[in-house]
Structure prediction request, 126 residues.
Amino acid sequence: MKEGGGDKRTEIRLMNEYSASMPLWDDEGHTDGEDLRLSEALRSDLGTFASRWNSSIRAEVYDDRFDHIPVLMRLVDALRSLRRLANPAERRAAEAADAELRNLGEELRDRLQDELGASYHVTYRH
Prediction:
């Protein structure tokens, strides 16, 4: 599409969000991607990617019991940090899982770009 002498491509962002079943965003916000006419295989893989990301979120991310008590928030954060330091194998496993998700996201970004074509610009935010 030409606009003002330059090419205007539709921006699609591939990024996860808590509880989102489809990790796609456009200028309007979160989208289920129905209007993009993606292959069923890619839609399925995007949904699996979102589910996998959601299941990888540590329980402490959702723990807001102490949000209104700053001293307890700092104490709980310190205890969680100490726990991670005391368990290097757990930390390495979490880092490896994060790297694997990043690689998968980059692969999905490339597949999405290929299916959508040149009129779209697909980015991935990890």
Observations:
- Residues 88-116 form the longest helix (29 residues).
- The CA atoms of residues 56 and 98 lie 9 Å apart.
- Residues 2-125 form one domain.
- The chain has a mean pLDDT of 88.
